[in-house]
Amino acid sequence: MSVDHPVASVTADYAQRVADDLSANRAERERVRSELARLQDDLVRLEESEQVLTQMQKVLGGTPKRTAKQTRTRKAAAVPAARRSNSKVAAGKQGRCHRA
């Protein structure tokens, strides 16, 4: 900004920037609201589909298989233990490398 600008011009510039930012904010909020409504509709359809598929599975006598969430939870529980044992081995190897 130049020192030559009168205070009124600087104030008007900031006022315009604030008005532009406010307008962009409102437009973005509306976009997000629309996206949220679409996602909520998708979620309702998926939940309904799950109910239908679960009923079909019961009628067909199928056994429920592990869901992806259950599989991820089981794998996630194993990972920290593996990391702990690897970190001890790595620490031991690291200590030997520095001694040589």
Characterize the structure shown:
By secondary structure, the protein is mainly alpha-helical. It is built from two helices and no strands. The termini are far apart. The model is unreliable at 79-91 (pLDDT under 50).
**Count of alpha/pi helices:** 2
The share of residues in extended strands comes to: under 5%
Average pLDDT works out at 78
Main sheet record: none
Q: Could you provide a short overview of the structure?
A:
The protein has 100 residues and is mainly alpha-helical. It is built from two helices and no strands. The protein is rod-shaped.
Main features:
single chain, 100 residues, mainly alpha, 2 helices, 0% strand, rod-shaped
List the helices and strands and how they pair.
Layout: H1 7-60, H2 68-99
